[in-house]
Design brief:
This protein starts with a strand and ends with a helix. It contains 7 helices and 12 strands. It folds into 2 domains: 65 residues, Hypothetical PUA domain-like, domain 1 (Ribosomal Protein L25, Chain P, Beta Barrel); 170 residues, 3-Layer(aba) Sandwich (Alpha/beta knot), CATH 3.40.1280.10.
Length: 247
Amino acid sequence: MHHFFVPEKPDEEGLITITGEALKHMNVLRLKAGEEVTVSDGEDRDYYCTVVSADRGSVVLKAESGRESAELPLEITLYQGFPKADKMELIVQKAVELGAARVVPVIMDRCVAKPDEKRLKARLERWNQIARSAAEQSGRSRVPSVEPAMPLKQAAEDAKDGLMIVPYESADGMRAAREVLEDLQAGQKIGVFIGPEGGFEPAEIELCRQAGAKIISLGRRILRTETAGLVALSALMLAMEMKRDGD
């Protein structure tokens, strides 16, 4: 079933008339009367809908019922060490699918790539487009944001009002990771900090530790920067889903 984000709300008769940006996507898919779709307003309100009419100028939907939100009851921000090439596109796409609410590129000492200020604005727009598409594909109720790049010290300040998690290859054992997963609570804010291709400098780990971060291990394997964050997000997602379902 196709899923769309639309700013329009149902009227008194439960009809939603689409004329904006979402219309372009719907026209590409050539929706027909009688087809079923789901729509979200980006604010946790989701609807099952039936297409009443569809043409190049507008699509009219009938909202039949509400839909259970696919959002995690966690606010997770992925603070990603700035990667080289196009790795950020994959990271953004998969982080959104796995439930991240925000993705923040972070400038660290061992970043192989340094962001070009002139290109960064265009890349940021591209990353946010990818986030929107990934949110639609995965049935999210909100569109996560990709924020401007910031240095590590600023990122630690940004994350200080929540739980900071730093996966690190030199972390001692799995106890800290186990404690994080066992203690997850609905409504929690979590910042996951991932090093760049060159890894964290010891001084950066100490900066995070002094900011209150939990330094954890993701296991015995050395993971690439584009893999480590997705492993951490997957673990958080599964642990929270099982808690929510009472398993």
